[in-house]
Structures are given as C-alpha cells and as structure tokens.
Task: structure prediction
Amino acid sequence: MELQGKRIVLGVTGGIAAYKAAELVRLLGKQGADVQVAMTEGATHFVTTTTFQALSGKPVFTDQWDARMANAMAHIDLSRQADLILVAPASADFMARTAQGLADDLLATMVLARNCPLLIAPAMNRQMWENPATQRNVAQLVADGVQILGPASGEQACGEVGAGRMLEPAEILDAVIAFFTPKLLAGKQVLITAGPTFEAIDPVRGITNLSSGRMGYAVARAAQQAGALVTLVSGPVGFSAPQGVDRINVRSALDMHAAVMAQVARADIFIGVAAVADYRVANRAAHKLKKDAGGIPPIELIENPDILAEVAALENAPFCVGFAAESQNLEAYAQAKRRRKKIPLIAGNLIQDGFGGDDNRLVLFDDAGVHPLNPAPKSVLARQLIEHIANLTGKN
Ligand code: C5P
Result:
C-alpha cells in the first residue's frame, strides 16, 4: 500500500487511451489511494462514467452545472483537498486550455482552482504531439511547474508510429508513487548490481545462481524514487528496468565486475544485490560438449573477483551495502561477511523467506547493531533499506 490515504483527483480527457485510465483507477486504489474521477465531456464518448464509478466507488464528476450538487462549489473544495491532480490521458486540447489558464469545463476549473501539484500523462496522435503549438503548451506547462509523464513512442491507435502514446497504467502508477516518495537521496549517484550471473561451460551450458533479480530491481526503483540517479548492472533476468533507471546488461561475473569498475568512480553509494557466482569455468569449451566424446567432461573452476569487497577497498570508496542470502545462521554469517568485506551495512535474509517471490524478510546489520524489518513486499523493504542508507550516509 504505497499510496495509503493519498487523495488523488484523476482527470480523464477525450482520447482513446481513456480506456487505460480505468485500469489506472484500479491500480491507484489497490495501493490505498482515495481516487475521485472527473471526466471531460469528450472522455465520456470513449468510456462511460459507470465504468469509473464502479472502479472508484464514487460518483464521477463531469458537469460543472450539475444541479444535483448540493453546493456548486463542491468540485472546487474537492480539488483543494486533493494531494494531487493527475490527468491521464491528457489530450492536446486539455493541455492547450490548461496552458492558457482556461476554466471552461469542470476539470479545467478544478485544475485552475487547485493548490496541489498537477501531473499529466499526454496521449495523442504523433503529429498533434509534434505540432509547435502543442510543444509550446508543453513548455508553458513545464514552466508553470506541471510534471509531464511521457508520452511514450510506439504504435498508435490511428495506425501511425511515433511519440504520443500514453504511458502504461503501471508506469503512471510508478510515477505517482515516486512523486509522493521523500527525496532522501536527491542527486546522489547510486550503483546497484542485481540478478544472477551466468558462467558459461560451453556455448549452450552454464553455471548460475538462483536469483530472480526482484530484490535488486526493487532497490533500484526505490533509490530512483528517492531522487537518486541510478545505474543498475544486471545479470540475466526476465523483466525490464524500472522507469528512470539506467541499466547495463551483463552475463558473467567478469562482465559485471568490468561494468561496475567502469562506473564506480562517480558513485556515492554502491549496493551489491547480485548473486554473483563465486567461481567461473577455467576450461570453457569453444564448441558444444558432446556426450559421445567419451567420459564425463572435467570442469575446472577458478575464483571470480569479489566485486563488493573490491569496491569497498577502493581509495575513494562509495558507501557500500551488501546482501547476504543464507540458509541458516543468518546473523553470524551476515556479520562475518560484513567484517570480511569491510562494509558498513549488510542486508541479510534467509533464502527460505524470500526466494523468487514478491515478499521477503530482511535484517539489517550495521555498526549500531541489528535491525530486523517486518516481513513485507520487496518494494516496501527496498524503501526501508533506502531510508536506512539515507540515514547512515546523511550522518557522514
Ligand atoms: O560472499 P557472498 O557471495 O556471500 O556475499 C554476498 C554479497 O557480496 C552480495 O552483496 C553480493 O552482491 C556481493 N558479491 C560480489 N561479488 C562476488 C560475490 C558476492 O559483489 N564475487
């Protein structure tokens, strides 16, 4: 529940992407937000108010002259009580009217009367987006402090391809969560490793660790939402990078080591979440090993560099954070690892508590002692870890 108690007015304007706003209401509600939908007349030609009423659990505002309203100022009060007005999709027409400060329909009036921030997710045909008039309006809105989300590029409902697609509902949700996250790491450069590494035996086989990458990606997302500039060095995982995070894809521990060393000079904080293979294959075969070649092929292993320990030993080392996934004796092993790698903070978890799933249980170990966190989704734990790091680095 990352938006518990937040009051959000969701404005929906006329565009085919209005159907995606229905999913957005559901996602915002699932995170605990209190959502009031206001639609323009145009939007009601694409999706009915009934859909939004059912999903938000509240009557939808459409008409500023609605005589059923006990108090004609109710809409304005509502916009005043909101923590945020989000308009998705925002049509070119809505953006033009907002840039001009018009109040010619209910949503425009709420936007003009607001005393909270405004986030808008444009959606329109690529030529409408590229039109100098629209670009002028975008520039004016940005100058007025409006935050613009997207638009994305890709195939459009009209069949054309280009910039103007509304961001996906999950991406807009992420941006809203980021908006409400305190900027504890504003401007900090954070370098993170995540996922497993893959150590080739031959062109089709290899040795790897079981690691979904979920925890590392959650940490990257939380750091980005806390205002950090995040570079994520990622082993092979099955999902895309969190929004606003720079990702470098790697496969082996040596690749990961090289990518980290190339980036580390500008990092203020390094968080090693990756499950790096301790060993790689020394006698890697150039061609696929054949079963009928006679005998069981011997695999020789050599040790991989310890990326975290090496970063921590640098002269101008960033603040280093490690992870320790253990199957037993968590405290003893994690503390030993912290001392051996000479790092100020390590996050330990028992493998049986968190592997591959969405939830985890973390215990933080630092100079001050042991800080167990309540079992929670990885996204929540990641945010708590970032808060802990911000506390420790803030004191330096
Ligand atoms: O030594 P161990 O693998 O248990 O330590 C785990 C921590 O060290 C994690 O933070 C992991 O990302 C990091 N590590 C590393 N390079 C290695 C092995 C582990 O950065 N070769």
Remarks:
- Residues 189-394 form a domain with the Rossmann fold fold (CATH 3.40.50.10300).
- Residues 193, 253, 272-274, 276, 304, 306-308, 322-324, 337 surround cytidine-5'-monophosphate (CB under 6 Å).
- DSSP finds 14 helices and 21 strands in the chain.
- The chain has a mean pLDDT of 93.
